Request: fold
Amino acid sequence: MTRLFLSLSLLAALACTVEEVPYCEARPEDPVCFDAGTDGAVPDAMTDAPLVDAPVVDAPTDSTADTGLDAGMDAGPCGMACGGATPFCREADGVCVACLADANCTSPGAPTCDATGACVAGCEAHADCARFSGDALTRCASGGPLVGQCVSCDAHADCTAPGAAQCDETSKSCVPCSMHEHCAGTGQNVCVGGTCRQCTEATAATHCGANACDPVANVCTGTGRGTLDTCRPCLSDTECVTGHRCIPLTFSGTARGHYCMPTPPAGGCLASPRPFTVPLTGRVSRSGVASTTYCGINEALTTCEAVRDAMNGIGGGCDPAADPCAEGGRCALVGDPIGGSNRCTYACDDFNQCPNSATLGTCNGTAPNRYCGRL
Reply:
């Protein structure tokens, strides 16, 4: 078979040298047209020496040889410009990779550069996530489905907002609290309705010392428990003396806030100490005791502040024109026209609404100008 191939090649060469010179002139590199004895010149059938077999020289196979297309270009150790999902060249083995160091990994979900040059979930300490502070994802999840990723929290103490104090184990994000223990990182003590607060009335002794806890704002008040008597402003039932609760009052239809008022005695409000004999119905206490009746003042005519000023002798020698008395009070003559004097008092429509005292114990005058203390 080999002899047949060589014979055919020889015949082709002879044909080229004798009859097909134009072909060989156009393709001198073709082995069938090459005469080793003529230095590559196209053979002349009439003058050249007879053709002899020439040794075949293999073409260079070195892949690094310039081909003319990339001559003069240095593609670097990776043989090309790295980009896309693998933008970094690892020079040690000439491979394009996604990362060379953790800093190259920009996703909190894959913050670690592993040995293969891939970004993976592999953080080991919170410091590994510090670069994601702009996204508030600076904690390294030590457990759960997001282990090894940079997350918002890894423990309840990482959650510092009172309204989101619990670290959810699945999402590793801060969510509303559901128990007091979740409030450790907020500076607050108790979980109330999903929010961490300073106290409840039940924990006042622990968290407020001798003072009460406001059951609405859940903060410690500045008032001792059980220290406020009748008609004193209050924030909690526990601030009031025994037999009283902190209930809302009005004046001429306008809300005034909460005041300590007594519950009715066995004989009803008329048996209550004067001047707190007017039934106040349908009041829910600030601490949440259901609607019931308390004994108090005539809210259409006066206020607790005016009543207490009168009972404490405030405004002696006052000028009725200036009227320095509290809202719901008035500067008026108390006592007889000869021996009496101006002082703060308040309007009434029944003597039971006046203090049981020698100077204020009557409700005299003509409506609507009746007030306690006029003789």
Remarks:
- The first helix runs from residue 2 to 18.
- Helices lie at 2-18, 21-26, 204-207, 304-311.
- The radius of gyration is 51 Å.
- The chain has four helices and 20 strands.
